[in-house]
Amino acid sequence: MTLDRRVVLITGGCSGIGAACCDSFAAQGALVIAADVRKAPTGKAGQGWTTLELDVTDPHQWRCLIEDLRGQYGRLDALVNSAGLLAEGTVEDTPLDLWRRVMAVNLNGTFFGCQAAIPLMREGGGGAIVNLSSVSGIKADAELAAYDAAKGAVRLLTKEIALFCARRGDQIRCNSVHPGIVDTPMVANFFQTAKISSEREWTQNQPIGRKITPQEVANLIVWLCSSEASFSTGAEYIIDGGTTA
């Protein structure tokens, strides 16, 4: 895949799907910037990643980051909005502060990232955006009101961006990826306090009968950002082991 020396920005890049993406893009020769609210895990810096701290809910931090990339590289070829927050709560018992926090990270963070990145991608002649939604952006779960709403909104925001860029002739593609239950720290931490069905039950609901690995999701994302996916835009790519089949 033609990713050599491409500049790739990945949010939530220090754990889970984001970290797997960083490794995969770096292995393809890309220049990877891993942005996360947390510091990079020990040993990652210097292995094909440039790491920095970013609060995706802050549009000012996004603007500063993109300006830094403009000054250092003069371009941005791919953006992967992987930062996310999984939280339990029904429509009746979800507190307003939790609702706002989930929306701020999962939806607003994605919007701010796309809004800030598109002008720099346009200046460089185009690019690819992948927004991490979820199987929860396709089908609802009664106990994940804020998360489902945010991920469903990410799906439609992605299509909006894809049409906007295509009709302008910007050569910027935008797609969403919808994983099922992935073997990540976020999922593991969620089930430590969850009151709903267990992680085992969720996993067994995936017809393949196991959790998805972060690497499997990363493989799809890398392809979507490559020239091999040059005609793919405005689409949702489901990777859920058959859950929505």
Automatic annotation (TrEMBL):
Pfam families hit by this protein: adh_short_C2
Keyword Oxidoreductase listed: yes
One GO molecular-function entry: oxidoreductase activity
InterPro entries, per the entry: KR_dom, NAD(P)-bd_dom_sf, SDR_fam
Superkingdom per UniProt: Bacteria
Keyword terms, alphabetized: Oxidoreductase
Domain Ketoreductase: 6-184
Gene3D superfamilies according to UniProt: NAD(P)-binding Rossmann-like Domain (3.40.50.720)
UniProt entry tagged with the keyword Oxidoreductase: yes
Family from the record: Belongs to the short-chain dehydrogenases/reductases (SDR) family.
Protein name: NAD(P)-dependent dehydrogenase, short-chain alcohol dehydrogenase family
